[in-house]
Write a structure and sequence with these properties.
Layout (H helix, E strand, L loop, with lengths): L2 H8 L3 H14 L5 H8 L4 H4 L12
Length: 60
């Protein structure tokens, strides 16, 4: 998902959305919301409200 779509639908800041996209490209993806949270040092509570809208595939 591109950064602008993350920002629009999941409500992080534009900067945070871009960081998610950059990091996802470097690590090959995120396996879970917990993986995303730990990798980006992002508090899990910020993902709780949108976790049901996220799809995670194992890193490649």
């Amino acid at each position: 998902m591109p950064a602008d779509v993350l920002a629009r639908h999941l409500a992080p800041s534009d900067e945070r959305a871009a960081q998610v996209v950059r990091t996802r490209a470097v690590v090959g993806g995120f396996a879970s919301a917990d993986d995303l949270s730990v990798t980006l040092d992002h508090p899990p509570r910020h993902l709780d409200a949108v976790a049901y809208r996220l799809v995670f595939l194992p890193p490649q």
